[in-house]
Amino acid sequence: MSGTSQDTIREFTAIVDRLRTEFGGVHPHATVSRCVDAARHSVRDITGEASPDQVERIARKHLHVLALVAAEQR
C-alpha cells in the first residue's frame, strides 16, 4: 500500500465503523479509532504495507484485550 488513496481512506473508515459498532458498549469511539490507527502503523512499520484485513484483525484483538483488562479492574 502506498500513500493514502481515497479507497484506502474509505477502507480504514469502514474498519473503524465496524469496530465502533462491535465495541460500542465497551470502548469510546476515540479508543477504537486509536487502536485502528496504531494497528495500521504497526503493521506498516513491520511488514512495509498494511492490508485492511491485517489492520482490522490486530485492532480487534487489541480492543478485546483492553476490554478484558478493564473487566478485571472492576
UniProtKB/TrEMBL annotation:
Gene3D superfamilies, per the entry: Corynebacterium glutamicum thioredoxin-dependent arsenate reductase, N-terminal domain
Organism: Allonocardiopsis opalescens
Domain of life: Bacteria
Protein name in the entry: Uncharacterized protein
